[in-house]
Amino acid sequence: MRKAVFFLLMVSAIIWSGCSSTKSVPANDKLYTGATISLNNVSNTREKKALKEGLDGLARPRPNSKFLGMRLKLGIYNFFYKSKPKSFFGKIRDKYGQPPVLLSQVDLEKNSQNLQTYLFNKGYFRATVTGDTIVKR
After folding, report:
1. Taking CA 44 as the corner, what is the angle to CA 38 and CA 49, rounded to the nearest 5 degrees?
2. pLDDT tens for residues 88-130?
């Protein structure tokens, strides 16, 4: 029974999450989709890959999770957005949904400092980290 409810919930969320991923985002804010890390002047490919994985893990906040290219948990959250917390649908939203990660929650200075510290600890003493915000749509 529990698996059937979960399956039905996932199917309905896939259907309803198609175009409403920004439904609960405030008017003057944007949905944060993640950070892009690019490395320059690293000669070894294996080393570059390891550094990139380490730096990707340090970028905060983490964007909403994706499943098959869709933000399924965000769709569940948006579908039951107006539900009261103690109601059945509110509990579904809180258990299976994920609130949107907003661009205003990103602290670019702190992220740059964390990445700089990580690179320093790995032995890149003259590394520089720059950050930029690109807003699409």
Report:
1. 45
2. 989 988 899 999 999 999 999 999 999 999 999 999 898 899 9
Residue type, 41: N
- At residue 71, φ and ψ (nearest 5 deg) are -90, 80
Domain range annotation of the chain: 2-121
The DSSP code sequence of the chain is -HHHHHHHHHHHHHHHTSS-TTTTS-TT--B---------S---HHHHHHHHHHHHHH-SSPPPP-BTTB-HHHHHHHHTTTS-TTSHHHHHHHHH--PPPBGGG--HHHHHHHHHHHHHHTT-TT-----------
Residues 6 or more apart whose Cβ sits within 8 Å of residue 48: 39, 42
- Bridge partner residues of 70 (DSSP): 67
**Phi, then psi, of 73 in degrees rounded to 5:** -65, -35
Phi and psi angles of residue 79, each rounded to the nearest 5 degrees, phi first: -65, -35
pTM for the full predicted model:
0.73
